[in-house]
Amino acid sequence: MDPVRVGILGLGTVGGGTVSLLRRNAEPLERRLGRSLEVTRVAVKDPSKPRPVELDGIDVGTDAESICTDPEIDIVIELVGGVDNAEPLVRKALEHGKPVVTANKALLAERGNELFRFAGEKGVDLAFEAAVAGGIPIIKALREGLAGNRIESVHAIANGTANYMLSRMRTEGMEFEDALKEAQDLGYAELDPTFDVDGIDAAHKLALVAAVAFGAPINYQALHIEGIRSITREDILYAGELGYRIKLLAITKHGPDGGIELRVHPALVPEDTMLASVEGVFNAVQVVGDAVGPTLYYGPGAGADPTASAVVGDLVDVARTLGASPEYRVPYLGFRADGMQEPRWAHVEEVETEYYLRMQAQDQPGVLAQVTRILSEEGISIEAFRQKEPHPGDTDVPVVLLTHTTKERAMRRAVAAIDQLDVINGPSQLLRLEEVDAV
Ligand SMILES: NC(=O)C1=CN([C@@H]2O[C@H](COP(=O)(O)OP(=O)(O)OC[C@H]3O[C@@H](n4cnc5c(N)ncnc54)[C@H](O)[C@@H]3O)[C@@H](O)[C@H]2O)C=CC1
Ligand SMILES: N[C@@H](CC=O)C(=O)O
Ligand code: NA
């Protein structure tokens, strides 16, 4: 049979990894597919740039759009990144009846509803396994493997860069900026690393996961997002002393007031759970389904080879159904377009959980009494309390407490009042604790 002709847009970390992987595993890929997958064209920004990947036999140019319209190309892989940069290219390829494989979660989180609709109108595939949790086939698991379930909750470590940084800060005592630089050098970070550090990348991924888990339109605007910028080495240390690890979590689940929660934030996770032991660039996604119970998917969340693994997995799926009627393909988000339903997305103040609160308090009698009075006025009870050694030269002392389960609305009011006290040097650090089902 004729080879499947593939055009790749962008030859950075993931594009380079994809070309290499397709070459390296050409033989088993052909045995899986019954046809060879041949990269015939690649678009780059700078053709004079040396590339660590063999490109002989590939037409390398700078005109990405012409690949999207080329009748000699069967499938387009979009790996240029960005939203405004990538959208016209993806649209152009779909318009010309070419299925697209992409790793671009920013694009799909922001414009996915329109793009999937457009792809549906054109009757072509738009595949995105690499966009969520890198090499972990979590989209496939949710869309296909868990299709028999009502999904109850998803707790994910979905950003490799942030997890790598938190791991390095904990195990090496590394500074935030040094840990970020390492992650960037390893090719894990986004072009704009604030996306990784501020929780935006994890939020893009969670918007997609929630859509696939609940059969809902993608709703990035409904997300509550906090990043890891405020996490200090002391927070990591104190959390450890209390038996927890700090992880940047992406969470979607049914909330106590009936809405679906969608939130990304650092959280304390009990040290004896599997999620807590996920270190470095690894990601993990814990999914609870009503029939299956708790399940866990673990693997590398970023980097050239792992992400290429997901891109090529999609490529094989798409190549298998080239020319087939759309009725025979798995719907983009696992639910038919006419089966999607918008739920009520919960406000973060509806969250009920335990909290870690770190305050900087003046070292004088009566401080604890003032703090506990405010907490008790909000009906919040304390589970653990620790006064820490002051930093050399500091007049105030760090005070850390854990609460019992309470409503976020009450907790926020209490912290605002605590930070108004003369004896507290605010703002205090407030982090959520997340209990996750044992897997
Ligand atoms: N690096 C990683 O571990 C992962 C990245 N992703 C996603 O994969 C995509 C690509 O990421 P990376 O490879 O890391 O980025 P990168 O910055 O290493 O590569 C992107 C390449 O595209 C080129 N480019 C940009 N606009 C272009 C255009 N119009 N025509 C031709 N070339 C163009 C850039 O010059 C650059 O070489 C992004 O959407 C990213 O979010 C997804 C999962 C993991
Ligand atoms: N920058 C992202 C790359 C993969 O999606 C990450 O660090 O997870
Ligand atoms: Na994936």
Task: Describe the protein.
Belongs to the homoserine dehydrogenase family. By secondary structure, the chain is an alpha/beta fold. The chain has three domains: 4-136 and 305-339, Rossmann fold (3-Layer(aba) Sandwich), CATH 3.40.50; 141-302, Dihydrodipicolinate Reductase, domain 2 (2-Layer Sandwich); 351-433, Alpha-Beta Plaits (2-Layer Sandwich), CATH 3.30.70. It has 14 helices and 17 strands. Helix 1 crosses helix 12 (304-320), helix 5 runs parallel beside helix 10 and helix 7 packs across helix 8. The mean pLDDT is 97. The site of the ligand N[C@@H](CC=O)C(=O)O has 11 residues, from helix 7.
Brief account:
With 439 residues, the chain is α/β, with parallel strands linked by helices.
The class by helix and strand makeup works out as alpha/beta
Quaternary structure: single chain
CATH topology of the largest domain: Rossmann fold
Which architecture name of the largest domain does CATH use?
3-Layer(aba) Sandwich
Cα-atom radius of gyration? 24 Å
> CATH class of the largest domain, please?
Alpha Beta
Are any ligands bound, and if so which? 1,4-dihydronicotinamide adenine dinucleotide, the ligand N[C@@H](CC=O)C(=O)O, sodium ion
Helix content: 25-40%
Shape: elongated
Q: Domain count, please report it.
A: 3
Largest sheet: 11 strands, mixed
| Beta-strand percentage range | 15-25%
Strand tally is 17
Mean pLDDT over the full residue set: 97
Poorly predicted ranges = none
DSSP helix count? 14
Query: Could you state the CATH homologous superfamily of the largest domain?
Result: NAD(P)-binding Rossmann-like Domain
